Amino acid sequence: MGSDVNGAGGVGRRISARAVCAAIRDDIVSGFFAPGSRLTEEQLAKRYGVSRVPVREALRTLESEGFVQTRRHAGASVAEPTEQEAADLLDIRALLEPLGAARAAQRRTEAHVKVLRGLVRLGQERSLRRQLSDLPALDGWFHETLAQASGSPTLVAQLTQLRHKIAWVYAVDTPGRAVESWEEHGAVVDAVARGDAERARQLMAAHVERATAVHRLRRPESTGRRAAAR
User: Which residues contact 187 (CB under 8 A, 6 or more apart)?
Assistant: First the structure.
């Protein structure tokens, strides 16, 4: 059964294109809509319990983000990234994530540091207990909080979109990397807390390089699998 972004039946409530966009994006990233799948306004409006207007706006946004492509006489469909486009995502991450960590070291608040340390503690506990299903969400919150600490809305938006696209295109093969990954997160937070921008940049660059080594392109039959660590 399709999800209803209206909640409680959705009667009489106007749902923003932003909420519909997020719902469609989540379904693309999770593999519910596979690459190449056709996306019709009628189909999507029914799935999310909304009118066609926010669906139309959401599809335009997703096209600008690279998740959807529109062809004349064929309509909208889920994009099918080439291997080169997929490789470019990791290259861009290698540039932006270290920049975000360096900015965070310069601009973070004590509240940011407190949240980051709490996420690292939880990530390390779950990793050691092999509670791998909890890690993708914790990892996402960690990187989102670190990006927020950079104090740059533009950088936050770019990193958020980049993480969605990497999760869509790639899977991670090595669950055993989870413990190492959270140790690396902890080292980054220590540098950020000290205000050491260059050290934070170096540590994040090394983290991204190690994480990249265990990424593999998703195949259609494995699209719905989620990574345990990044």
Answer: 203
Give pLDDT tens digits for 103-159: 999 999 999 999 999 999 999 999 999 888 889 899 999 999 999 999 999 999 999
Look at residue 171 and give its three-state secondary structure: strand
β-bridge partners, 75: 71
What pairs with residue 172 in β-bridges? 215
pLDDT tens digit sequence for 89-106: 999 999 999 999 999 999
Measured between alpha carbons, how far apart are the two ends of the chain, in Å?
A: 30
Question: What's the CA gap between 157 and 171, in Å, rounded?
Answer: 22
Question: Which of 211, 218, 168 has its CA nearest to residue 66?
Answer: 168
The backbone torsions φ and ψ at residue 217, rounded to the nearest 5 degrees and listed phi first, read -65, 135
Question: How is 38-68 classified by DSSP, letter by letter?
Answer: EE-HHHHHHHHT--HHHHHHHHHHHHHHTSE
How far apart are alpha carbons 40 and 81 in whole angstroms?
20
The model's pTM is 0.81
Region for 131 from its dihedrals, namely left if φ exceeds 0, alpha if ψ lies in -120 to 50, beta otherwise: beta
CA 224 to chain centre: 14
Q: How far apart are CA 140 and CA 29, in angstroms?
A: 14
- CB neighbour list of residue 143: distance below 8 Å, 6 or more residues apart: 97, 159, 163, 230
**Cα 111 from Cα 122, distance rounded (Å):** 17
